[in-house]
Fold these 2 entries.
Entry 1:
Amino acid sequence: MAIDDAMGANSSEILRSSSDYGEGLLPIPAIDRYAGTGLMFWLWCGGNILLTTFVLGGYYAAALGAAGMIVVTFAGGLIGNLFPSMSGLRSARYGVDEYVGMRSTFGTFGAYVGIFMLVVINFGWVGILSSIAGKSGSAALHAYHFSNFHWYSIFALACGIILPVGMLYISPKTVFALVKYTVPLLILFAIVLLWKQLSHYGWHEISSIKANHSVSWQYAIEANIAYAVSWFPYMGAWNRFAKSERGAFWGAWLGLSFIAILFAIVGGIATLTTGSGDPSVWATKSGLGIPALAIIILSTLINNAMLLYCSAMGIKTAFPKANYHWVVGLVALPSILFIYLGTLQNNFSTILTVVGAFIAPYWGVALGDYFLLRRQRVDLVGLYQGEGGPYWFKKGFNPVAFAVWGLGVVLWLFLGGWTSYVNWLHIASGEKVFAYLTATGPVIVICALVYWLLGMLGVSTIAKSMPETTA
Amino acid sequence: MAQSGGGSTAGSGRSDLVHKSVIAPFVGHVEPGGEVPLATVLATVVFSLLVVFGTTAWWMLH
């Protein structure tokens, strides 16, 4: 009998190649995983090929100079991307979506808080990325003397909404097929852009541009780590396709880090040489109009498909009876609003603040729970249970996990609130401590350790969710 | 016993995401292997820091 939906058909067997494994909530069995280390590497490379990754390097290049920018980019990229690569291992092991797995930390309904953050952030992200594709597409056609038409809307809606939704509608596997062939090409374009900058200006000239110290290196490290951990909400949905945990970990860490470092350095050097933080200016000055447009269009396709799939699976976790095909279509619609509102540059700082303050401590608690407390063991059947199951905690919420999350949010706002535009969050003593610690990295580690300690001290709410053999 | 020594699986009910009888056959068939120990992650952190700051020190000295 086919397991044709995730709502409790009385099946007693595991079928191979069921579409439910990618489009439903059932765990994907080990025999049905099809993404090896290489494919996971290309997937996460594709995920990080974003205009924002270019912009990240430009964010602090003038402040630190070329050499300082490169060192900080390496340090922040390598360390920052370790956190999401680790958090995705729960889904890689159990084949479950991020928010099914998250129930073991925050509770059956507590995981919905993560879903809410994911879906709301995605509305903005998908809209902003679509608008970038729209602007680039219309600018390119304008440069080639095409007549005025609604090119912005056509490019934005086609690349950002219609095609990604169409791919997911067919199958999430289409994303893997796309990244396998396009990501190497996109990386080549970025390398050509870097080579053009270096050969035109020369390293000596680039490295002699004086740092203006407008922001500190700690601030640059913080930006890198906050940017990297913005992947937290997305890891599980895709890592459950991995053929091995090792492949999921190394594929994600190497893929995310490689692109974060390469693209941020390209963006940083381009900002130094052109004096502009606008990627369209770099592309024009380098004579790379069409390759740059290809990067933007293909990366928008890949990214929006990846983000929308995560939203769809999150919504399926909250509403298991919802039809996958309807969900992937409907979840993209609110983003259309953001295609016509705001710009990337205006929203970049706000995105990093929200990620640092709310996302980082939430997944910090989850890392402490999964790695330190549960030692990478959860109850698969329990993840799908409601009342009476091991992860029901108190009415579906784990109050201890939420308390530690709250502590993490307060701590982040103390340390990093001064980087936001909110005046009352500018705490002088927090800024002084930030100079030694930064904010996002320590908050993740502290949340993980505090939750672990509470679990080790035998707080009853947590202890009840532990297996009898180790409780 | 549930997957990997998990906790109680009693009390399946209406609030379940998926009925227990559907998930139970998956137990023991989902783990792909290739565990990444925490020690590997910590070693990666140390390695990354050494590479980054070692390179920086070398760069500054030359």
Entry 2:
Amino acid sequence: MTPALRRGMFFAGLAGFVAFYLWGLAGLPGFGRYPGPYGFIINRIAVGQTNATGVVSAVNFEYRGFDTVGEEFILFAAAAGVATVLRHLRGEQEGGRDEASPEASVHATSDAIKLSSLLFVGPAVLMGWFLASHAQTSPAGGFQGGVLLATAFALIYLSGEFVTFRRLSPGTAVDAAGAVGAAGFAAIGLTAVILGFPYLYNFLPLGTKPGAVSSSGTIALISFFVGIEVGAAFILIIAELVEQKLLVSGRGAR
Amino acid sequence: MQYLPFVVVAWILSVGLYGIVTARHLVQQIMCLIVVQSSTYVLLLGVGYVTGAVAPYYSDIPVHTSAVDPVVQALALTDVVVEAAVTALLLAFAIQAHKRFGTLDPHELVELRG
């Protein structure tokens, strides 16, 4: 298929899409005229039911908690998938060509990048934990916090501390953290079942003051475990991709 | 004007799809897929918006303040996570393709496969 033919087919398809899309738009209530009622109901009852003032987190870790278990395991499976795909190749390549070890061929980074990335490691860790532990009060949560925690490790890599990076990353510690995070979430759900409630029922005391860090029961706890899991998954993904970096750039991507 | 956000959705989606169709590099195609997926964030948040309402966080506002739909915002979060997972896997496959075939040009990959 020539590029011109490909492009022609794309525009033909796009014309059809636009036609159906405009037709669909005509039946929508319009921007800002959300018909409800689900969102309105949740907004009205969530604070009273869960003592969490961040209703999005309440939806994620309480009302749609079961979906979030699946969501977390999607990320878990993706990290495992990345590791599997690339690990297989690493074995192949070790048997084939003689490649310089990643440590030896890391390019020297400028002092400015080294200093500024090392300066940001501490704040990134702090902010990550803050976000992971404040899902119940603010637009934060385990997913956002976990990604920020993983960023701290990426900053260590950026600063050229590749040896430190390798010592901290993959290995058993990160794998264990990922497993603890994923299993912790599922275990909270099962604990509720053992206590005689539905799966993922909020069985912990909700606290007295809405919006306090200690309030909202399992919402805060689940968010904490999600933060650990997401951080570990992203560290694993980043580390796996970084280890491949030199092979791709070394041979010149066309 | 009241449909403008939804037109933006279609525009982002189309631009991303065009990029996927015409890109000559697998990493570019993956980035275009991210653009395509970005359109769903605008769609989700656009669907749940309520004129004059605030964000659904009641830390410092009265409990009965009108707020936008929190459910679509939670869905957008799921969307972001899935996108990260998909992107990571696709990048891994791109690396694998480059190692096996020595190229990241999707057109050449088609020829090599046959």
